[in-house]
Amino acid sequence: MTNAKKTNKDAAKKADASAEAKSKAAAKSSADKQNGLLAGIIGRAAKTARPRRKLDPSAVAVDVVKNMPQLPKDPTKLRLAVLGGGSFGTAMANLAAKNGCDTTLWVRNKRTVKSMAKLHMNKKYLPGHKLDERLHYSHDLAAAIKDKDIIFLAVPSMAFRQTLKNIKPFITGQALVSLTKGMEKDTFALMSDIIREELPEVNFGVMSGPNLAVEIMQNMPSATVIASDSEPLRHAVQAALHSAFFRVFASDDIRGVELGGALKNIYAIAMGMAAAYDVGENTKAMLLTRALAEMSRFGVETGANPLTFLGLSGVGDLYATCGSELSRNYRIGNMLGRGMSIDAAVKKLGQTAEGVNTIQQVHEKASKDGIYMPITHALYAVIYEDKAALGVALNLMEAGFRSDVEFVMPHDHSNAALRAQMQAAQAERTDSPTSSKASK
Predict the structure, then answer these.
(1) Coil, strand or helix at 32
(2) What local confidence, expressed as pLDDT, does residue 415 receive?
(3) 173, 145 in Cβ contact below 8 A?
(4) Could you tell me if 72 and 105 are in contact, meaning their C-beta atoms sit under 8 angstroms apart?
(5) What beta strand segments (E) does 240-382 contain?
(6) Whole-model pTM?
(7) Per-residue pLDDT tens digits for 262-298
(8) Is there a catalytic annotation at residue 264?
(9) What pLDDT is recorded for position 29?
(10) Residue 375 structural domain
(11) Distance between CA atoms of 376 and 384, rounded to whole angstroms?
């Protein structure tokens, strides 16, 4: 290399180094200016910001009611009775009492009533949670509902009709609101159907949503839906229960709201079983979304608005119930998934899990009316026909093709065709010795 070439190369390197240094210096200067500007903004904000006020729940509750002009501003004028001392009935009665309503919680067992009145606590269903001292208790049904404005029914579905028959002689114009999520055994009657049959002249509504009672008692923000044909009743329920931590939305789709609350119990059992098998997030997401499709499909076939299932009583309740160990139906499913029999699981739970009965009711109704409900049918096969869960799950994965979003995209196959495919696949799996061994 000649001296001239070497000199030119050295000069080029120096020029590049100088340019790089200038670039870094410029970038540093720009960053320093930005950091300085940001620091100045933060400093000024800190000097001028007001100190953060501590949240006062009672003040928030007052403000909530104050800003709801369509509701009575004084809920203390409302007189309520809540029939049923389970976890949800107790939570709603306590919430109404805290709002100042004249509220009586009716419990059938006299000894339980005495215990609750003395301790201000439901030791069996909500241990450790203090109840409002203004809440009244009674085991006398006639006295509990006398002169009340609204009667909330929070009894198990199997006792719902008989409870209506028991209160019928004492009804003098009270409105009824069902808090029960389920279906009557052997009749496929929802609670609203039973009310229409037993007390056809009574004004009524149904309430449902993602309402885990323990979380409500812990003042975790929650919401529900009151559905009724009566606007005054909807407003009255909102006034009685709406608080800083519990929002009450309204709907006129009684069938949709009630079906959402009943059907989601089926899929909570399925999700509990899936959790016992330690499935992945993909599986959970698939199960949850196909459950929603199944719910809305069934709802439309029985007279509900499919859009209702996109709200609190549909996807909201489905999500909460399928993802929480606080859910009784989820716990039942988890025990089934771990090999426990249905009778043993129900006995161990010690509470009513409405989904067990609902699976049977919906399976029979869907089979009769030709409604495509593969998850429900699969659960029925596992619980009531003692089929191997793995084999049933594999059948589900082979059950043909279907559009993703119900009521938006056209289906490539009819329900009947898909059902035939599923039955054929199941028959083939049963006849195959290899498949039978694998399913076990």
Answers:
(1) helix
(2) 54
(3) no
(4) no
(5) 246-251
(6) 0.74
(7) 999 999 999 999 999 899 999 999 999 999 999 999 9
(8) yes
(9) 56
(10) 257-439
(11) 12
Final residue of a structural domain among 199, 221, 252: 252
Summary count for the chain: helices (H), strands (E)? 19, 8
Beta bridge partners of 243: 246
Whether residue 26 is contained in a domain is answered as no
Rounded Cα–Cα distance for residues 270 and 375 (Å): 8
> Are 173 and 79 in a shared domain?
yes
Q: Which helix (H) or strand (E) holds 24?
A: helix 3-48
**Count: domains in the chain:** 2
Q: Binding-site residues for NADPH, please?
A: 87-88, 108, 125, 181, 213, 328, 354
Q: Are residues 89 and 137 in the same domain?
A: yes
| Residue where a domain stops, chosen among 231, 252, 273 | 252
Mean pLDDT of 341-369: 88
Q: Say yes or no: 276 and 348 in one domain.
A: yes
Q: 156 with 242, same domain?
A: yes
For residue 325, give the nearest of 271, 288, 280 by alpha carbon: 271
Catalytic residue among 98, 264, 347, 368: 264
Q: Cα(128)–Cα(143) distance, rounded to whole angstroms?
A: 28
Contacts for 361 with CB less than 8 Å, ≥ 6 apart: 183, 184, 185, 186, 188
- What's the CATH number where 129 sits? 3.40.50.720
d(CA 222, CA 290): 25
The tokens 């509504």 sit on which residue?
205
> Token pair for residue 372?
């495509």
Is residue 46 one of the residues assigned to a domain?
no
- Residues marked as binding? 87-88, 108, 125, 181, 209, 213, 264, 317, 327-329, 354
Residue 239 CA to residue 246 CA, distance in Å, equals: 11
